[in-house]
Specification:
Elements: H1 2-48, E1 57-58, H2 64-93, H3 99-141, E2 148-149, H4 150-167, H5 170-179, H6 185-190, H7 192-206, H8 211-249
Parallel strand pairs: 1-2
Helix pairs in contact: 1-2, 2-3, 3-4, 3-5, 5-8, 7-8
């Protein structure tokens, strides 16, 4: 009888997962429709501001225009539908969480979206212009003609801002993992030297190959890590105090 119950439970979980995936896809498709409508307007804006306003955009393939159109629409759709997708993920895993863990996971959903948007803004308005200016100086010093394709231009942009947007999720992830007992401030303190090494590698990969640019990316990443450690201490202290109160009440 027990194997049958386990099988039925597995089927129920798979059915629930499929239902939530379909809901997420539906919202993503609706957001994609809005993104397709807004994509030309977003492209027009991007072309009107530096550094894009100072160049002629070229296509080197018949597919480049369509690829650019769909890429902008998809990025818009993912950004808009991210809160709903995270909520569906929370709804699927909440059955395996304790009551306080459920509340924490739901509470961190809007925080994760805010951090993601902050990462996009930091990457687009600060790191990307700095990186593009550096590459432009190198091109001019070599007396080369700047002829950019739209696919290469946006590929360069997204390779910078997307990793930064993901990195800005670090405080929320650390807070949640601390809340459910997976991480502790002591563990983060022990991992600090290794974390800094990883941050140096990340900063070197997404910034121009010069010391000042590396530092302008590395320092915010370090601040994010240290903020994560601080938030972990706060969450850990509250979690420990709640456990002590619960134990004394028992």
């Amino acid at each position: 009888m027990r194997p049958l119950e386990e099988t039925m439970s597995l089927i129920a979980h798979l059915t629930e997962l499929r239902r939530r995936i379909w809901r997420s896809l539906a919202v993503l498709i609706l957001s994609l429709g809005a993104g397709l409508y807004l994509s030309p307007k977003v492209l027009h804006y991007l072309k009107s501001v530096p550094p894009a306003s100072n160049m002629t955009w070229n296509v080197f393939s018949p597919w480049d225009g369509l690829r650019l159109y769909m890429t902008i629409a998809l990025v818009f759709a993912l950004t808009i539908s991210l809160p709903f997708i995270l909520y569906q993920l929370w709804g699927f895993v909440r059955e395996g969480l304790h009551t306080d863990e459920r509340a924490a996971a739901l509470r961190y959903v809007p925080y994760s979206v805010i951090c993601f948007l902050c990462g996009l803004a930091f990457g687009y308005f600060i790191v990307y212009p700095m990186s593009f200016a550096f590459t432009t100086r190198i091109t001019e010093s070599l007396q080369l003609v700047e002829t950019y394709g739209v696919a290469q231009y946006f590929g360069f942009m997204f390779n910078i801002i997307i990793p930064l947007a993901i990195a800005f999720e670090l405080p929320v992830i650390v807070m949640f993992l601390t809340k459910i007992g997976v991480l502790t401030p002591q563990a983060l303190h022990k991992m600090r030297r290794y974390a800094y090494l990883v941050l140096v590698i990340v900063a070197s990969l997404i910034s121009p190959p010069e010391l000042i640019s590396h530092m302008m990316v590395f320092i915010p990443l370090v601040v994010l890590y240290e903020v994560s450690v601080l938030l972990s201490r706060i969450v850990y202290g509250r979690r420990r105090n709640a456990s002590l109160v619960e134990a004394s009440g028992a």
